[in-house]
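Pipeline run #58 for the internal structure catalog. This entry was flagged by the ingest filter as a single-chain record with no existing model, so it goes straight to prediction. Upstream metadata was stripped on purpose; only the residue string is passed forward. Reviewer on rotation: M.T. Logging verbosity set to normal.
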Amino acid sequence: YASHIGYCLPRQFFERARVPSTVTGDDPRRVFWVGTQLEWGLINRVRQSGLLIGDQVHVVSKEHHVSGYVDFVYGGKPRPDDPADIADYSPEWQSYLKTYKAKVRKAWPKGVPVTAVELKSASEFSVEKQFTDGPQFHNTMQGGIYKLAQRDGLYPDGFPEIERFQLAVIAKSSAKMLVFDILESHVEKALARLDELNDAWPLELPACTCGVTMGWEANYCPYRTDSGGCCGDGLIQGATEEFWKLADAALAAREGGQDG
């Protein structure tokens, strides 16, 4: 998954092999539900502005064995309001949107640059830290995958060329927002991680890096143990039958190549 490519690589190896998570009970990440509500609210506002081109845009790379959903893409010139929508708006909100769109047209007579946005919610502490230190690694890797997808021509037919790829981080309590550009360096790092993972599949488990790139990662790893460890080699025994067939075929091909 594009959203996981910045995390420890064994986690993605296990997920691809359909190894069951070792974590049971209430998931502390349920707090992410709040972020979902913020995302919905922001996308709805962009839709009302007339600038939304698409949301949850699905991109799939068969070459790199990765897929994901871009939160939303906006840009161009404000589109006309849907009569069915504005019928539910208050007169004040209709007036505001009319004024807003007029200002947008004046500021960007050729249209707002087409922009793909990956939206993340975070605590106030995290947002303040990112303001000082920059965006979190795993989020830039996800954005890098979506920028790579355009390079590889993976967006839907007829989709406009995306001019900017951005990561937006919004504070859950104050709604403060930071916006970071996704750079070519992020694309190259994400591609390197994909290559490492695909080169290892399905015979060699990559080294665990939980807690190395991001100190908190091990606490949320779905393959952690009560003793504090995670991503152990023995977990692969829980993989599906399909995985073992694939692994046996790959091993036979490797041994056959060595014999040759």
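catalog note: The chain is about 45% helix and 15% strand.
catalog note: The longest strand covers residues 66-76.
status: ready for reviewer M.T.
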